[in-house]
Amino acid sequence: MGRPRGFDADEMLDKVVNVFWQHGYEGTSMATLMAATGLNKPSLYAAFGSKEELFRCALERYWQRQGELTRKHLDEPDARTGVEHMLLALVDIQTQPGLPHGCLAVHGGLVGSVASAAVRDELRARQAALQTMVRDRLTRAQAEGELASSVDVADLARYLTMVGQGAAVQAAGGATREELRRAAKVAMRAWPEAD
């Protein structure tokens, strides 16, 4: 049996999430991770594995929280209200004081090297999963008569997730919470009427 770690892995992972969230995958160095966590390189590798595995752990933790929030709003009885609440909640998360502005999945996805292809693929899969969640809710809304049968739910889901991702980019660029909330409400004007 090995020696106890001497640190709280969940607490360290929260710090790692914030570092990747702020700097993206390629922009995060091991030195930055060591400074944020107070751990040396061997301790980080022993606890979490490689930088890629560390990023995957951070992404999973971040995604669990985001996924819970998204599901909560998409499960609201009225699809339009749920989607609007989801977009506004995403804006609030992306502009939280004390946390990096924007979105870990968007920041982390700004990777360009061949060596980072696996990370890029993982992020694309996560974003596709979000779009699928939205599309599934819209499909249900259409079946229940909340959306016209002529609405292409795949296109509407892509549009709505694009608004959420665009808000993340805008937040990282300095847009305020109030500005982004207003923009999300404008985007909701595109919601198609029922039959």
- For the residues shown, what is the average pLDDT? 88
Spatial extent as radius of gyration? 19 Å
SSE class? mainly alpha
The best one-word shape is elongated
Low-confidence region ranges: none
Strand content: under 5%
Measured between the Cα atoms of the first and last residue, the distance is 65 Å
Number of contiguous helices: 9
Q: Percent of residues in helical segments? A: 55-70%
Number of strands: 0
Largest beta sheet, briefly?
Answer: none
The ordered string of helix (H) and strand (E) elements is HHHHHHHHH
List descriptors.
elongated, mainly alpha
Please provide a brief summary of the model.
With 195 residues, this protein is mainly α. Helices cover 69% and strands 0% of the residues.
Q: Helix and strand layout, with pairings?
A:
Elements: H1 9-23, H2 30-37, H3 41-48, H4 51-74, H5 79-94, H6 104-108, H7 117-143, H8 153-172, H9 177-187
What can you see in these coordinates?
It is a single chain. With 195 residues, the protein is mostly helical. Helix content is 69%, strand content 0%. The protein has 9 helices and no strands. Helix 1 (9-23) crosses helix 2 (30-37) and helix 4 (51-74) runs parallel beside helix 7 (117-143). The longest helix is centred in the middle third of the chain and has 27 residues, at 117-143. The relative contact order is 0.13.
